[in-house]
């Protein structure tokens, strides 16, 4: 996030290679298929919103990118490097960090210890404790307290801080607004905007469509494990997103209409 | 029991749901014949055939019981030898009071199950590895109590009365039949239990008690029933051992070796299957015959094979067979058959 | 021996039990594995001490610089070759594997060393004692065992709370999945934890062998005492194992004063009583205790 980019060559600008490229990923939980040929890419410095109903596969996709979940087929490329088979610690050292759904702080560790543990596989030393506390002054005061004693908003801040300790270039955030008051969520999103200004790339899972479309450049909507919609935010209306979110038409016609969403593994209807 | 089920929204012809299969029917026929043959052994083969069969049948009984505990209900008890010993002493006590020793086998099973009830209130508070060690503690306590009780002979032990009235040939035959009965009762009893909802509930408890509880399964009750039934079964086995050896002494009837055997048979045979324990009993029997002269090495090999089985073939030998061929001799699930054509 | 003497000896005995118990507690707290071979590993330590002290002709204490590193390496090997693989087969697979391992160790020892009871050469330390006042005599050996246990527990506690490695261990103990997610490499940590557990077990085994006798089957009883100390003190608490150990020790020595034959039974009954009345022990860490099923 703080390494300067090499100067672009003169002449017409070539499209920059995406920072993150997910291609045709299938993920199974035992016999249950959670993701069907999902593809998405995120440009350097961009912010992509990942939306969809519960169970659509958003968390699964983030976990597949970050490492804990293995993909049965397909590829995850980061900065051109194939990380599909890499364990989480290697992906973190390459610059991917995940703020997991539900915060998942270590309850018996203090705030500071939680953050320190996040640096276990850090990509660089660019984010020492002081710099992190600078971004989240409200938790600096509570650094010696056990993480389980903090409020929801503070815990979410600690969870993000823990991911920052790994000095990521790509920050994955899973439902950070869950269970928090709007004002608190607003503060967190302001922090994310500040991080973007410093060069961070974000992939945000968010249930709140308004926030997602405000904060991000691109939007991807998942429906039952497939990409139902992928577009830059200015190019879609909220209504179109909602339609993709729920599938066109009343719930009964799910199976019939799914084929029209341009999913990767379209097959002839039986 | 066959049912025809109309599938959802009329998208196809009716399917048949049944419990049994041709393989299983064939097997049932074969085993009925086998049982008749086994029951007749004392008449045509006599002593030399009875001895090894008694050992084998005892193994079958022990393995089936442990399978109910560990294979189905997730209770890894290494202290079943507590109830084997209890059954042995129970038999001695009822025999001393003049009860027919063979009826004593049933009584010993009841005594063991009865004592296991208060014990279950304690040990079932734990689970997993902690439960396992607690069962070791219980076995140790029972053994110490026996050692300290002069009324049952303390460390020296006691001899079992009441069998003097039988001639040796008849006695051997009666013990054989009693063992056969206990073995058949164990396998059949576990099978009948497991075929019902109990079996499904037990398996749910065994794989994930929290999820099972949230699905409405009465986890505590399932575990307690499994524990009590297994204790009763072990008590019967202990009584049989007492009848066989005619002498009950703490270090031999409470020997942890019984638990090792149970673990081995069920692991090698296949945990959570009906056929596995029987297969495991056969393997252990064969091993014992082959390695009996090797002393302590025998147990090293048994233990080593058990460890290997856990790491390499966790569904046991029967699991390998049934995965390959799809056989199920004593079915506990259902088969869905689509009509041909 | 007076009653006061008995109580003091019991308390000091508690130190030994804590020494054997802390490895069991650590293994469960971090890896959720109850190592049923833990007691047998301690007995292996005693046998190794016997071999080394006989070969070099010195009291067993002088063999520790060789013995303890060997135990640590054995722990690393155990985790890498056995426990790690077992964990992949589910939560209960390690229970089966460690029990099988226990059987193998006990019978291998039987083959190698016969079932004769053995004792370790404790040198001058084993025989020395000091007096407090006119009625109390304390054996230096018991005192040393107790102080060693306190030192080990303090060392472990410091390691866990002050080092970055300790942070990782505590994070893993809290939430294995998230620990992996934030980039902690779990396998090396598991290996080191097992190494430490086996080292403390071996050290405890040396004290057991010096204070009393041992044979191939001593491991099972050692496991039982270690386990009871953990449960009484509270699953998940290191210092709790000292409290649990002292409760066991005092019961054992005091009852032994009345009737030696009943001492071990009394200890087991104490454990069962605690299980009945306070199943989470005295200082349980909520989460760890729940996973052991102790909170029902």
**Gyration radius over CA of chain C:** 19 Å
Number of helices of chain C: 12
Number of helical regions of chain B: 14
Report the C-alpha radius of gyration of chain B, rounded: 21 Å
With strands numbered from the N-terminus, the spatial order across the biggest sheet of chain C is 1-2
Question: What is the strand tally of chain C?
Answer: 2
| Low-confidence residue ranges of chain B | none
Along the chain, the helix and strand elements of chain B come as: EEHHHHHEHHHHEHHHHHE
Overall mean pLDDT of chain C: 91
Which class do the helix and strand fractions of chain C yield?
mainly alpha
Strand content of chain B: under 5%
Order of helices and strands of chain C: HHHHEEHHHHHHHH
Helix/strand class of chain B:
mainly alpha
Measure the end-to-end span of chain B: 23 Å
Overview of this structure, please?
Chain A is α/β, with parallel strands linked by helices and 270 residues long. Helices cover 31% and strands 23% of the residues of chain A. Chain A has helices at 58-66, 88-94, 111-118, 129-135, 137-140, 152-164, 182-197, 209-215, 238-246, 254-258, and strands at 20-29, 32-42, 47-52, 73-78, 81-82, 96-99, 170-174, 201-205, 218-223, 226-232. Chain B has 341 residues and is mainly alpha-helical. Chain B has helices at 22-44, 47-72, 81-96, 101-123, 128-147, 168-195, 197-207, 209-214, 219-245, 250-253, 257-269, 275-291, 296-312, 316-325; strands at residues 2-5, 15-18, 158-159, 247-248, 335-337. In chain B, the strands form two sheets. Chain B has a three-stranded antiparallel β-sheet, with no helix packed on it. Chain B has a two-stranded antiparallel sheet with strand order 3-4. The longest helix of chain B has 28 residues, at 168-195. The radius of gyration of chain B is 21 Å and the shape is globular. The model of chain B has no long low-confidence stretch (mean pLDDT 86). With 296 residues, chain C is mainly alpha-helical. In chain C, 73% of the residues lie in helices and 3% in strands. Chain C is built from twelve helices and two strands, in the order H-H-H-H-E-E-H-H-H-H-H-H-H-H. In chain C, strand 1 (129-132) and strand 2 form a beta hairpin. In chain C, helix 10 packs across helix 11 (263-277). The longest helix of chain C has 29 residues, at 3-31. The termini of chain C are far apart. Chains in contact: A-C, B-C. At the B-C interface, helix 4, helix 5, helix 11 and helix 13 of B face helix 3, helix 4, helix 9 and helix 11 of C.
């Amino acid at each position: 996030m703080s390494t300067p980019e090499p100067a672009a060559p003169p002449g017409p600008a070539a499209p920059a290679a995406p920072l993150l490229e997910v291609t045709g990923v299938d993920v199974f939980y035992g016999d249950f298929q959670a993701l069907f040929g999902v593809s998405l890419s995120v440009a350097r410095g961009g912010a992509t919103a990942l939306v969809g109903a519960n169970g659509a596969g958003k968390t699964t996709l983030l976990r597949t990118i970050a490492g804990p979940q293995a993909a049965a087929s397909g590829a995850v490329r980061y900065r051109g490097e194939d990380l599909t088979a890499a364990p989480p610690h290697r992906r973190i050292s390459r610059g991917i960090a995940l703020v997991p759904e539900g915060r998942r702080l270590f309850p018996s560790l203090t705030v500071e210890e939680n953050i320190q543990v996040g640096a276990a596989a850090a990509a660089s030393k660019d984010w020492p404790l002081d710099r992190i506390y600078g971004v989240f002054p409200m938790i600096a005061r509570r650094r010696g307290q056990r993480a389980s004693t903090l409020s929801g908003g503070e815990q979410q801040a600690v969870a993000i801080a823990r991911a920052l300790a790994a000095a990521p270039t790509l920050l994955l955030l899973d439902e950070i607004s869950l269970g928090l008051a709007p004002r608190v969520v607003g503060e967190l999103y302001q922090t994310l905007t500040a991080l973007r200004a410093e060069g961070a790339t974000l992939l945000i899972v968010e249930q709140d469509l308004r926030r997602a479309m405000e904060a991000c450049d691109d939007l991807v909507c998942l429906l039952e494990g497939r990409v139902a919609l992928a577009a830059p935010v200015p190019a879609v209306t909220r209504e179109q997103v909602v339609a993709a979110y729920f599938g066109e038409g009343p719930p009964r016609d799910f199976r019939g209409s799914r084929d029209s969403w341009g999913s990767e593994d379209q097959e002839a209807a039986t | 029991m066959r049912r025809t089920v109309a599938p959802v929204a009329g998208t196809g012809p009716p399917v048949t749901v049944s419990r049994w299969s041709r393989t299983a029917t064939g097997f049932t026929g074969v085993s009925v014949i086998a049982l008749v043959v086994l029951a007749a052994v004392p008449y045509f083969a006599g002593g030399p055939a009875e001895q090894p069969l008694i050992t084998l049948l005892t193994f079958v009984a022990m393995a089936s019981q442990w399978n109910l505990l560990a294979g189905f209900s997730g209770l890894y008890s290494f202290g079943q030898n507590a109830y084997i010993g209890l059954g042995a002493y129970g038999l001695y006590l009822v025999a001393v009071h003049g009860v027919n020793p063979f009826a004593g086998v049933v009584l010993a099973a009841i005594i063991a199950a009865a004592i296991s009830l208060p014990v279950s209130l304690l040990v079932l508070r734990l689970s997993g590895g902690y439960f396992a060690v607690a069962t070791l503690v219980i076995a140790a306590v029972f053994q110490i109590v026996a050692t300290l009780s002069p009324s049952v002979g303390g460390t020296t032990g006691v001899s079992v009365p009441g069998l003097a009235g039988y001639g040796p040939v008849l006695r051997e035959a009666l013990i054989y039949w009693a063992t056969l009965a206990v073995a058949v009762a164990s396998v059949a009893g576990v099978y009948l239990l497991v075929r019902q909802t109990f079996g499904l509930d037990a398996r749910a408890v065994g794989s994930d008690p929290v999820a099972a509880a949230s699905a409405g399964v009465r986890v505590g009750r399932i575990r307690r029933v499994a524990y009590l039934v297994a204790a009763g079964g072990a008590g019967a086995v202990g009584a049989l051992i007492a009848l066989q050896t005619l002498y009950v002494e703490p270090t031999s009837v409470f020997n942890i070796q019984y638990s090792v055997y149970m673990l081995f048979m069920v692991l090698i045979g296949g945990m959570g299957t009906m056929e596995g324990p029987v297969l495991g009993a056969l393997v252990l029997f064969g091993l014992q015959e082959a390695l009996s002269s090797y002393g302590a090495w025998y147990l090293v090999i048994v233990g080593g094979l058990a460890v290997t089985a856990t790491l390499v073939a966790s569904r046991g030998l029967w699991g390998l067979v049934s995965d390959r061929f799809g056989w199920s001799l004593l079915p506990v699930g259902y088969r869905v058959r689509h009509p041909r054509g | 021996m007076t009653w006061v003497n008995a109580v003091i000896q019991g308390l000091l005995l508690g130190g030994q039990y804590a020494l054997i118990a802390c490895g069991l507690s650590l293994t469960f707290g971090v890896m959720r594995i109850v190592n049923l071979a833990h007691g047998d590993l301690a007995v292996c330590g005693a046998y190794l001490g016997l071999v080394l002290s006989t070969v070099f002709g010195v009291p067993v204490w002088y063999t520790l610089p060789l013995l303890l590193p060997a135990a640590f390496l054995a722990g690393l090997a155990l985790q890498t070759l056995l426990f790690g693989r077992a964990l992949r087969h589910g939560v209960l697979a390690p229970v089966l594997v460690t029990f099988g391992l226990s059987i193998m160790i006990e019978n291998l020892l039987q083959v190698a060393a016969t079932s004769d009871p053995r004792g370790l050469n404790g040198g001058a330390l084993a025989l020395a004692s000091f007096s407090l006042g006119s009625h109390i005599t304390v054996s230096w050996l018991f005192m040393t065992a107790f102080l060693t246990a306190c030192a080990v527990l303090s060392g472990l506690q410091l390691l866990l709370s002050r080092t970055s490695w300790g942070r990782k261990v505590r994070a893993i103990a809290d939430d294995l999945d998230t620990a992996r997610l934030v980039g902690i490499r779990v396998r090396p940590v598991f290996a080191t934890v097992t190494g430490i557990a086996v080292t403390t077990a071996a050290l405890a085994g040396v004290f057991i062998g010096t204070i009393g006798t041992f044979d191939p089957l001593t491991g099972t009883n050692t496991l039982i005492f270690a386990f009871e100390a953990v449960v009484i003190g509270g699953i998940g608490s290191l210092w709790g194992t000292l409290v649990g150990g002292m409760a066991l020790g005092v019961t054992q020595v005091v009852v032994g004063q009345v009737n030696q034959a009943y001492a071990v039974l009394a200890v087991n009954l104490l454990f069962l009583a605690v299980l009945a009345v306070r199943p989470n022990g005295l200082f349980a860490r909520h989460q760890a205790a729940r996973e052991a099923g102790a909170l029902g």
